[in-house]
Amino acid sequence: xxxxxxxxxxxxKDVAAEIGHRSRADVERALAAPAPxxxxxxxxxxxxAGAFLEEMAQRAHRLTVQRFGRVMGMFAxxxxxxxxxxRCVYCGFNAAYTSLARVTLTPEKAAREGAAxxxxxxxxxxxxxxxxxxxxxxxxxxxxxxxxxxRFTSIGIEMFPMTVQRYxxxxxxxxxxxxxxxxxxxEARYGRFHPAGRKGDYRWRLETPERGxxxxxxxxxxxxxxxxxxxxxxxxxxxxxxxYLLKNYWQSQITVSFPRLCSAAGGFAPPxxxxxxxxxxxxxxxxxxLPDVGFTLSTxxxxxxxxxxxxxxxxxxxxxxxxxxxxYAHASGGGAQxxxxxxxxxxxxxxxxxxxxxxxxxxxWDAALAS
Length: 371
Ligand code: SF4
Known about the structure:
Elements: H1 3-8, H2 15-21, H3 24-32, H4 38-44, H5 53-68, E1 71-79, H6 107-119, E2 124-128, H7 138-148, E3 154-158, H8 164-172, E4 177-179, H9 187-193, H10 202-206, H11 208-215, E5 219-222, H12 231-248, E6 253-257, H13 276-289, E7 294-297, H14 303-309, E8 316-318, H15 346-355, E9 359-361, H16 367-370
Parallel strand pairs: 1-2, 1-8, 1-9, 2-3, 3-4, 4-5, 5-6, 6-7, 7-8
Helix pairs in contact: 3-4, 4-13, 5-13, 6-7, 8-11, 12-13
Residues 84, 86, 88, 91, 93-94, 130-131, 199 line the site of iron/sulfur cluster.
């Protein structure tokens, strides 16, 4: 049974209403549970749980330190191309934005970006592209990976969904992790936000993480794009998704990200804004039911909020990010996907982590150890 079949069993169920009806007593029951489950999560995401945020935060902190220690994995995104055939209404790379300078790095330029990131201390890199397989070809990626592999101990991809066979080839070429955000689990809304292009296929995207698990990625990352739909409902479904992946692809480490939509090119305003307090409740609630899942935080959030979120469940962070191709070593002129709110250098972020008693980990895994 694929996750698309699992999520179909929720059709006709009003998850938002169920969350809305949860009472203080339900929240107290969830917090008293030794290992809260998905039904408890409905209570922990409810408006009633807002009054228990401090208690949730303390428990989330204790659980994270217990399972992960006081360490923070560090990574940086490397945008290879901002060419895209999709028209996601919230994205700066939307194919309809004809005024955006489109750039695809040559493999040599990508290698120079990699060298700049390595000089900053990074050993884990996440490669990103739009959906343009006619430009980001198999041959192109192979060349890029050949040049980047010697520089990094971990290479992840956040690209267009691919087949199991194609993922196996990429693993053979040195990629070890896959990130793919569902954006929203609400199928009707998904269709409205993705009006054209291959990304409009909800099921193809929904089943991508399991194709990644089947291919054998060491790590598979998922997440909703917060702001597109009710965060409480999205929180429930991303936990359901993570639970499904943990059960069926236990060889892969599962991670959840919390990208929050603030503003985007084209003036798109998030239809379901998520406040800072909401984000804290979401992260703490998910930590209590997913104690072994890694949580990733990007530089979309402000320095102040990121610093506050460090102890609440986050296990991996990006720092010093540029979201345009060529942003680290080249003046490419290519547009950025979104505005970075935390513009501190990786060194400055690492210093904050150390002051708070956390060890920034630049090299958390080495392919050589697995071979
Ligand atoms: S979100 Fe991804 S697929 Fe959609 S327009 Fe942006 S780059 Fe393309």
